[in-house]
Specification:
Elements lengths: L3 H10 L40 E11 L2 E10 L5 E7 L4 H14 L8 E4 L3 H4 L1 H10 L2 E4 L9 H13 L9 H17 L11 H11 L1
Parallel strand pairs: 1-4, 4-5
Antiparallel strand pairs: 1-2, 2-3
């Protein structure tokens, strides 16, 4: 049996460090008590067996050498492809609408009737977000506050992102952080294979669906 102290000493000798999750957690869900909440149209049926049936969105807390950062992403519930994302130094409805516009563009504007599922954070209940959804024909859906299972694929995605990429790097500047996030999302969409997609990447899986149509 080798002790943790011995392992640490050996790793230090070769200039290596272990990978460890951050030891603090920042809540990114702050509900507006005066807001009205759309119903949960998904009821944990996140994958409805076709593209653009459900889009899943969430925000996670991150940081770089220049301060705290927040990442908002929108994924297709069936293909798992990241359709749109945005990065900002504070949570706001603007970062959500930026991600929405990117997702709509990724689908060529063909998203009317698509369900946009989120938590009940104030940035999702904001009028600006509601207007963006109305403009593009997106149907808003929200899980219960504080119930992670109501948006579990988003939690799983953040875990994948952090353990496979974020925790493995140190970001000196905001620019460096944004560039590496973009590179990883491109990798996730085009290269990273998923067992539930038949060991294909989200982009390759979508191509196979189009070829079969």
């Amino acid at each position: 049996m080798v002790s943790a102290k011995t392992v640490t000493k050996v790793m230090a000798g070769i200039g290596s460090e272990g990978i460890s999750p951050r030891t603090f957690k920042v809540s990114t869900t702050t509900a507006d008590p005066s807001a009205s909440f759309p119903p949960d149209l998904v009821e944990r049926e996140f994958d409805q067996r076709r593209l653009n049936a459900v889009w899943l969105t969430d925000i996670t807390y991150l940081s770089c050498g220049e301060g705290e950062m927040f990442l908002c992403a929108i994924r297709d519930g069936h293909s798992r492809r990241v359709l749109g994302y945005s990065v900002a130094d504070h949570i706001s409805a603007e970062m959500v609408t930026t991600a929405i516009e990117a997702a709509v563009a990724a689908r060529g504007g063909d998203c009317r009737g698509t369900v946009l599922h989120s938590d009940r954070g104030g940035e999702y209940t904001a009028n600006l977000t509601a207007q963006a959804c109305f403009r593009h024909g997106l149907r808003r859906s929200m899980g219960a506050t504080g119930i992670c299972w109501d948006n579990s694929p988003a939690e799983s995605f953040w875990s994948t992102f952090k353990h496979e990429h974020y925790y493995r790097h140190v970001y000196a500047t905001t620019t460096e952080f944004v560039v590496t996030v973009d590179k990883w999302i491109r990798f996730y969409n085009s290269v990273r294979r998923h067992s539930k997609l038949g060991m294909r990447s989200p982009s390759d899986y979508e191509k196979s669906l189009r070829a079969a149509a």
